Amino acid sequence: MADINTINKDFADLFDQGNELLLEGSSDVMNETRKNAFQDFSKLGIPTRANENYKYTNLIPAFDHPYNVNLRYQNVDVDLNEIFQCDVPELDTNLVLLTNGWYYGNNKELTELPKGVIVCGVQEAAEKYPDIFNAHYGKYAKTEEDGVVALNTALAKDGFFIYVPKGVVIEKPIQVVNLLRSDRDLMATQRNLIVVEENAQAKIIVCDHTLTHHKYLTNSVTEVNVARNAIFDLYTLQNQHLNSVILNSTFIRQESHSNVLSNTISLYGGTIRNNHHVLLDEEYCENNTFGMYLMDRDQHVDNFTSIDHAKPNCLSNEHFKGVMDDQASGAFAGRIFVREMLSKLRLTSRTTTCCFQTML
Questions:
Q1: How many CB atoms lie within 10 A of CB 160?
Q2: What does the pLDDT look like over 301-354, one tens digit per residue?
Q3: Are 7 and 59 in contact, with CB atoms under 8 Å apart?
Q4: Rounded to an integer, what distance in angstroms lies between the CA atom of residue 156 and that of residue 27?
Q5: Over 60: is that where the pLDDT of 35 sits?
Q6: In this predicted model, what pLDDT tens digit does every residue of 274-287 receive, in sequence order?
Q7: 77-96 mean pLDDT
């Protein structure tokens, strides 16, 4: 097994050798953010168990593998009758696909969406909607604190972009299906951006699924901004095979009187690490961060949450439950930060940590 220094050097070489392809097709904002993120990755590297936030998950075996990396869009044939539908009978959604971390080139136009709603790829959004994109891209995911997030930002080329204008209510949920299909072992880097404007309402369902049994590593980062009085629900359903590794980081920023529900359900996967970061950035926000996992065999799932009460009079709730069988393992670490207020009260924080092993 390679040591962590060798793995970090391999990614540094990939960044240098693939720099031209990384810059190609990406906006100036993406590339400037990419440059800064790589500097952060050079300092941080892939987190080891010596990192307090990753003490329950060993990422070295996950990264110690000669994955193929696609720095250009590769067309993937997908049978729409074959795709994963979240195993929910008669699920009625506005459906879009991503393949190997890229927005699928043959997605159908979503004609039932209200006027002004935008659903497209990140590269397309940066080109066609620069004012919206540039105001939010790279603003919430903290590359200086997590090497996995820094690596994603350094290598990101595409993902999905969803914009809900002021006052718009989306009645039928948007479903994003992330498909992995390759004839070789693959590392997919996916970068997503969701912007929900003032008084808007939206529900998004994200499903992760594999179509071939090669070894996969997915490093996904999703940034979300929810404006004043907006209501937003995000459901994530993870169902991949035992040769898969999912590194899923979500950063949610909320403005005053906004209400956010995030629910992550892990059904299957070799190694799953979910990072949930919430910033309650104005008064009277409400956030509900929930999770459930069902693991067996040698599967491992690790949920890490960080809820930052940056302003007073906000409400947050967390609720995670798991059931494990065989040699499966799981971990949960939750942190709630309450910032110092203008009254000069002492900065306080509460940290809860627990780890579970093999529950029958």
A1: 27
A2: 999 999 999 999 999 999 999 999 999 999 999 999 998 764 444 444 444 444
A3: no
A4: 11
A5: yes
A6: 999 999 999 999 99
A7: 71
